Amino acid sequence: MFDDWIDVLLSGSLEIKLPQIAATSGSTPPMQGSGTISWDADSGIRIQAVTDGARGLDSLFSGVVPMPGTLIPHSEYLTFSGQTQHGWDVSTCPTNRDGIHLNSASPEVVWDLQTHGLTLEHKTSDEAKRRIRILMGPLPQGGWTRFSDIEDNNPFFGGKSGSRDWLYSRGEFGEVAARRRSDEWFEVVVLPADDKALGEAHVIITAVARAFGFILGRRSAIRGHEEINGGKTTRVLDTRQRVSTTNTILPPLGWQSTYMGNVEPLLGPTIDFFLTELGEKVASYLYVCWDAADNAHATQLAISSICVEGLLKLAAKMMGPAEPDDCDADLAALGAWIATKPAGFSPQFLARLVGMRPTFSSLSPKDIFRDWIRRGVLGVTVDDMKAWSETRNPSAHGKLSTTVDSQPKLQDRVTRHARVQSVLNRIILKLIGYTGEYIDYSRPGHFPAVFPSEPVPPSEGVTP
């Protein structure tokens, strides 16, 4: 039916004719007919069909109209399925009920509506080893590490050439290779290890996209994929991720020689990490940072500092501290003092002190920073903590600046932001278990440095 699925995805267009198509919604009997599903990269996926069932639509639309803002269960959405003449089973993602045309004198329903994805499946007798191919974008800014030799057998214009256009990495999950396919898109091939039960394809694909996203400093968009697994081939088109951000957050390897020399050693372990439960939690913070990269700088500052706060608390479970420095005896004494209702303090003030007691018994970001500075963890310094605090506190207390600062003040904000992002990268690199070069954005000039760094001598009097 299709010569190569990745080529189809790259072309940006597709048309599937379905001699038999069924529209279903919840417990309503399927409405049978025929139709066409077409896709254009600019306008999306379009379903055009004619089915029976006009008389049964009354029950489908007779329910109470939901209030605005109320979620509609997917069971009430429409799903279309059918089979092509070449034996491919086709199904669409659930879509809403817009795009229905009825004629009171006709028993037929005319459908013309949009959906955001479709799946094609085909069974074969070939028990092939599992293989996943993904079309992703945008291209890595740092380029590619390996050469392809190209030979043109044209009798008049033949010749040989080479192009640096791909990279390769290996992890516990298996093998992964990526190759440039156009000015916007690259193809990723994943060969899962035989002894790894990695589950659904979308789990692996999501981990791969997150790994590239972390290394490149931006969300990776996925147009679709193909999975060959045993005797079944599955092809997926997904139009939900049409664009990525124009800008990036500061990537851990930068964009030049440090990236080229370390992208392959980092990629495999990063995919392994994002297949874990901890990686899932870390990714939730990265998505927020990536999506804010095109926002105003004040927004980026707030988002980065909030995400570092969350990552500090995640990392503290592995790297310490386990609990704050506050002594239980101190908290008990405070509670006993408040219970005496000391003179000179209003009941409201004493009630606020009672409400603050839990904050003394839980780890704060500054508790973690101070502990790491004292122990030399990740090379974190007092300046790093001050940069985070001076970035985080204004946003936490509703003091975001919308005015244009003087150049020195703006430079201070940019420098603080670089330090905050450097802490973010170091935490994630440590959780991944990476060793090698990275870019230390806390240093002027953003020079390469060795990770993990040599332990920093303990700092005395860490009180900021």
> What is the top-level CATH class of the largest domain?
Alpha Beta
CA radius of gyration is 28 Å
Q: Main sheet? A: 13 strands, antiparallel
The CATH architecture category of the largest domain equals 2-Layer Sandwich
Q: How are helices and strands ordered from N to C?
A: HEEEHEEEEEEEEEHEHHHHHHHHEE
Say what the CATH topology of the largest domain is: D-Amino Acid Oxidase, Chain A, domain 2
Q: How many strand elements?
A: 15
The computed structural class is: alpha+beta
Describe the structure in your own words.
The protein is of the alpha+beta class. It folds into three domains: 5-55 and 77-115; 125-149 and 162-278, D-Amino Acid Oxidase, Chain A, domain 2, CATH 3.30.9; 295-324 and 362-451, no CATH class. Helix content is 35%, strand content 29%. The chain is built from eleven helices and 15 strands. It has helices at residues 5-11, 57-61, 201-216, 257-274, 277-291, 297-319, 328-339, 347-360, 365-375, 382-396, 407-432, and strands at 13-25, 28-40, 44-51, 79-83, 89-92, 100-102, 109-115, 117-137, 146-152, 159-171, 174-180, 186-192, 221-238, 436-439, 448-451. The strands form two sheets. Strands 1, 2, 3, 4, 5, 6, 7, 8, 9, 10, 11, 12 and 13 form a 13-stranded antiparallel sheet that branches. Strands 14-15 form a two-stranded antiparallel ribbon. Helix 3 (201-216) packs antiparallel against helix 4. It is globular. The termini are far apart. The relative contact order is 0.09. The model has no long low-confidence stretch (mean pLDDT 87).
